[in-house]
Every structure is written in structure tokens, then in C-alpha cells.
Amino acid sequence: MSKTVSDAIINVLDGLGEAGLKRFRRKLCDCKRDQGPVIRFGKVEKADADDLVLILIRTYTENGALDVAIEVLEAIGDKESAEELMDFQKSRNKSPGPSVPGDPGQHFVDLYRKDLIERVSQVDPILDSLLQRKVIQQSAYSDVRSERTSQKRMRELYEGPVKGFGVSGKDIFLEILTEHEPYLISDLKGEK
Q1: What ranges do the domains of the chain cover?
Q2: Is 103 helix (H, G, I), strand (E, B) or coil?
Q3: Is the pTM of this model over 0.70?
Q4: pLDDT tens, position by position, 87-117
């Protein structure tokens, strides 16, 4: 059985000792993040490593929990533990695009096509980012923008450019979706 995000973080937190865990809890609440919720100290004050991991994953999803744990470890000066989690993160990212257990070949943006078409509301900034990062061309950008509703724009995006993205293009598309629709992506990642 392969190591999970939860296993990796617990392993690192167990190695901190009580003083290190106390610093981790305090800094976890102090760190200001660009997006996403902030964890209140009362929620983690008496939490052990197992409880902290549950709180991190419930608050930020698995990938987000890993990023936050790395950020906090660096903030408390534990570079070695942060590097251990970064190595784990890199080993996880070697697989071909984010997918769901039980369906290893299907990319997240393909798996949740229907949900993304129905629920994405910030289509214009997503299109702007795709154009800026040269994932789509100006003509595709114009075609998608010509549709009247968010759902029609997302459907047009899927019918045209997304078909030709490939894994790296879909990875960038997912990054952009996560940037502009963080709560939707977080919700979808927690559905399965």
C-alpha cells in the first residue's frame, strides 16, 4: 500500500516532538494565506499530530494540506521536515495528471467535466489566464467568449480547446481553475 498524504504529514509531525508540535500549531494559525480559510488557534490548541492532519485535510483538501504543512514547517525553521514533505509531494506529482483513485487514467478536468460546466462562474478570468499562459489561442478565446452564459462558455471550452490540451495543458487548466474557483475545486476533490 502506498503512502498517503495523511501518512506523510503525520510521520513528519510525530518527529517534531512536543515543543516542535506546539510551534507548528501556533504558526499554523499565524500564517496568512492568499486564498482559503484560516484555522483558529482554539481548534488546534490541544490537537495531536493525528488531529492536526485531519484538520488540515478537512480545511485545505489533501494537496492543500501538504502545501500548508510545508509552508508552516519552513516558517518554524524546520527545513529538513519541509524538504521531506516536498520530496513526497514530487513523488506524487510524477503520475500523469491529477486523477481519482480507481480511475488512474482519467484527468480531474475530464472526470468532473459535467460539474465544471454547470458550476464554474468565473469563466472570463479563466479564459484570460489560459490565453496569457498560451494554452489557448486568440481565436479560441474569442469563440468561447462569444457564448452568452457561463455554462455555454465552459461547454464551448470543453468542445474545442480542452480536447487538444493533453496532460500538461489540463494540469495548467486545473491550476487556473483552482486559482479562480478554489472552493468549487476543493468541493469536487472531496466528493469522491
Answers
A1: 5-92, 108-191
A2: strand
A3: no
A4: 888 877 654 444 444 455 578 888 899 999 9
Instruction: Write the single-letter amino acid at 59.
Output: T
> Which class does domain 5-92 fall in?
mainly alpha
Here the cell at position 102 is 480507481
Determine the residue type at 61: T
Q: Which run of H or E residues covers position 71?
A: helix 49-75
| Class of domain 108-191 (CATH, top level) | mainly alpha
Each residue's pLDDT tens digit, 10-68: 999 999 989 999 999 998 887 666 555 778 888 888 889 888 888 887 777 777 788 88
Overall residue count recorded for the chain in this entry:
192
Best CA proximity match to 28, nearest among 12, 44, 6: 44
How many C-beta atoms surround the C-beta of residue 72 within 10 A? 23
**Cα separations in angstroms, 153 against 41, 123, 139:** 42, 7, 14
As a whole number of angstroms, the distance between CA 136 and CA 100 comes to: 26
